[in-house]
Amino acid sequence: MAEDAPKSRMRGPARKALITAAALKLFASKGYHATSLAEIAAEAGAARTVMYDHFPSKRVLLLSVMQEQNAALVEYVGARITASGPPEDRMRSTIDAYFGFAQSKPAARRLLFDRTDEDDPEIRTVRQGIRESRTHAVAALLGTDMRAVGVLPGEPIAEAVVELIITGLDGAAQWWERNPETSRSSLVEGAMRLLWTGLGHAR
Amino acid sequence: MAEDAPKSRMRGPARKALITAAALKLFASKGYHATSLAEIAAEAGAARTVMYDHFPSKRVLLLSVMQEQNAALVEYVGARITASGPPEDRMRSTIDAYFGFAQSKPAARRLLFDRTDEDDPEIRTVRQGIRESRTHAVAALLGTDMRAVGVLPGEPIAEAVVELIITGLDGAAQWWERNPETSRSSLVEGAMRLLWTGLGHAR
DNA sequence: ACATTTGCCGACATCCATGTCGGTTAAAGT
DNA sequence: ACTTTAACCGACATGGATGTCGGCAAATGT
Positive or negative, the Cα torsion across A15, A21, A24, A29? Predict the structure, then answer.
């Protein structure tokens, strides 16, 4: 666990940051229900009851961390995709940005994408909202390209295809976590071969 | 909950079947940790302690249900894919078979694919084994098609691409569960447009 | 008919998690 | 300096879940 040999007191926001970091790490690795506030507190180097000085409940803590990390994802990817250039380059850069995020913040990726703990109604709602905004953003990004293969952007089926792409890329990111020796560029290339070229087209 | 106006006793296997059915339903909808043995027992129309007459622990119960449903998946898909014919038809039939399974046994799909409850080491191991066998089966199925777009079947990257396909199709299946008015054939067609044709190829 | 098996359950022991309260004391404010 | 704020924590109350034990009684066998 985190050590605090200096027994001086922290300021509120500093402790809060430690707590959210610990919560991110533990929620992402073991899931919501399997993680206790006591564990998070220990990881953050504080007594369990300190948690309640910063968050009213375990659920609100999870929700806060999710919102925070989703903002980080949006910011990370948004800053990296190239808005101009040919469609192929735009798509490649988006895929690369997502894999970059998965690489630099693996815990955040797990927390945001692994479908888990949907038993709680409020958590489910927030997750759904995050997913929908993601889907719409990507749909807007790929609109014209999908029309080119006969999937009309307005139609519901377009949403399904976007969902396939997003979930699929995340599946590849999960695989990457289990096989870290693979290079990011190989991964991007493989994904492009599949999603852009298509399995039906020989070199 | 399940009603049993006749208060006659069941035979062992019959009760066991009720229990596994209830466990499948609840584990799939609320997740492992959020489901108690008491709920499962109630759903199966028996007292909580009856569970221990059939399964030594909650964990073993989950493991049993997972193995059982995975066997059902393998059998369902295996019975439906056409082994012969052009590659495009083979792939289409496989996708259609998977969506068919998702449609006819939604709870099983959720239990097997939703990445959840990986905190327990034994559960994690079993999940991993199931996923790997799935991946290898699909990789064998698509070997030659992937070579055609420059992804060599032996290379690790091929595994990542297969993982992308599988996870992506499951993501589409999840979307379908939320949008059930879409027809299965549209879904199959959309997936084929993306995975077989590729976004880079106009009509 | 009677004995044996076995499906079924109530009561108990144990553990662990969440959330509350009030006190203590380091640090900030003036 | 000395007052006030607020970071920190120990102890408690409560609730819920897992797993055990022993007994009752319906099916079943002979």
Answer: negative
